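For consistency, the fold was encoded as tokens, as this record shows:
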Amino acid sequence: MPNLTNEPVILAAVRTPFGRRNGALRETRPDALLAGILAAALERSGVPGEAIGDVIAGCVSQAGEQGANIARQAALLAGLPPEVPGVSLNRMCGSSQFAVHAAAQAIAAGDLDFAIGCGVENMSRVPMFLDLTLGKQAFSGFDNLHPDILSRYPIPHQVESAERIADQWKLSRAALDDFAIESHRRAHAARLAGWHQEIVPVAGVDKDGTAFTLDHDEGVRAVIDHDKMKSMAPVFRSAETGVVTAANSSQVSDGASAIVLGSRAAAARLGLKPKARFLARVVAGSDPVMQLTGVIPATHMALKKAGLTMADMDWIELNEAFATVALCWVREFQPDTDKLNPWGGAIAHGHPLGGTGAALMAKMLCGLEHRGGKFGLQVMCIGHGMATATILERLE
């Protein structure tokens, strides 16, 4: 039996809509974007700000407006008392999923009663690989890697790793494009049905600069031009050897997310009803060259830790960094695909790096509540060969 005194539980889980690159959120600073979702998460949770023991934020490009420990800056902007500390971490694409893990671990250890795991990335304002001195995108992301690392592990661009996955699992261009189309179809259907109760609308601007309220993921397409999709050239390889295109890969996006956690005992003292508990929190290392296949061992680790099987899962949230990642995972586990990204994934709604992990967790929990499901699995690939995975049990 778990230690119910220190057992970490989720009290609220929210996210912003995801904006397209240079879209509706292009004029919103990332620290302000994160501050807004922190305030919304606290309001939904019922936890007073002064009770929060730490704000742990995932953010990949910690430079410019996302530098100077964005967790601390956003906490102050959100109106949290100055006594509430903050820390920012970078586990690349799994950053905010791991931020939630770290918050849960601190509570389980008895160090904190309440904490927030969160994340943000405004890729319109802070591009990947931003140079701190020049203030612009100035290098490829591999320029500063130690040559001894590259001699042992010739790490390619992630797109090339995605291509190698297609080669190994014999995934066709048609299969990848069909998966991408289905991601948009599911995401659009979920939006029309109004199922995304985890989304907190935010202020945005349209293409002319006019203010409006963004209440949906901006990158989701209601209609897919199949001919245009088929005509798109592969990102790196030739049309004869490549299958990975911009259309079957995740979108560059802007967004933020936040999960409020507390111990069972502390939540009970405040009369708060937990939404979910953790059955598994894992991080896995994998081949740095293939680099995106870590979702496979991470899933095995999480299922073993939870003592469950894939058949037990009621909702699976697999980050669609590339369609090849999702489809190789499907080949390995043969899940019920109706339970895999039922409301679409990053190919449709986007992938704001450090903001995605906690957002997918919020989305998954909302989906479990919507379907009356009990167990949910979230898994994300990470650059240079890692992956994060979480299994939640929704509490009635």
In short: The radius of gyration is 20 Å. The mean pLDDT is 95. The chain is about 35% helix and 20% strand.
